[in-house]
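User: Sequence in, structure out. Go.
Assistant: Echoing your sequence, followed by the structure tokens.
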Amino acid sequence: MPGHDVIVVGASAGGVEALVTLAGSMPANLPAALFLVLHIPAESPSLLPDILNRSGPLRASHPADGEAIQYGRIYIAPPDQHLLVEEGIVRVIRGPKENRHRPAIDPLFRSAARTFGTRVVGVVLTGSLDDGTAGLLAIKRRGGIAVVQDPRDALFTSMPQSAIAHVDVDHVVPLFSVGSLLVQLAHEQVAAQGSFPVSRDMEMETKLAAMDMSEEQSGEYVGTPSVFSCPECGGVLWEVRDGNLLRFRCRVGHAYSVDSVLAGQSEAVEEALWRALKTLEESISFSRRIANDARKGGKDRLAKRFEERIQETERHSAAIRQLLVKGEVDIVLNTRADLVAEEEQEANATFSDDLQNE
């Protein structure tokens, strides 16, 4: 029997530093393959393979779709692509976003659980919100091992805390201990797979992430229909009860935790407010021009009517501008979506730049 030779790792804000530490602790003869997802903007080039190649002995790369899996390699999700695993190969696919991210952690974890079962170790490191929690649940359901960075040791605590709150985690350890633990697990013989079957929901969700259209056309859906709409495409969200974790998925595959739904709604509200502000400002300019022309033409009643309209529109415009300037959109929806995105990008980009400049 093999050891735990499929190691899947997810990180978000603060993740570059954590992954550098992890790669530096891996031995050259590791009897396992590592698969990494780090949240990065779709339009940004990824320097992570170069950084990790300088940090430890294992070769790191963005794999090609269909590339064979080898021990002693680090496979990193490219920007704007999900990283999935199948029997013997890596898949790189521009599937639907999960938790508002592509690449996302949950699709990798879920595909590893489905394909390799008890051989999988899932690792959740520093990060904001809760991507990785649902994937770690899938790994546990298939008999795999769940490892989480100690939140007290993480630069950003939300992802580790969410995983611990919803998953029966096997190991909660500080970052400096993660590498040695993974080496130990890679040499341990795994349990038999028969008692951990693949559920129908896990099968369907993995295929949706892989853009397998047969699942979308089958008429079957994961969960039960809700009254909410998908922030990404506007379709109906189906409610999925995953243990004590509530999450959502639409028919084309966009998936959300509760926090990511709120974050998506916050962005949608802010976008709508900016559009409304633009329309109001254009209305003020138009009304002011009509009022000025009316005054010049001696049409005082018409001018007064448009001037009153200008005053009313300016009040509405000022109220919306105050919401946007003070960031009260997020307060209303009880989420920190914009701040989270800014934290993730700044934390990872700053550390990457520092390393490149050394």
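User: And one key feature?
Assistant: Residues 260-338 form one domain.
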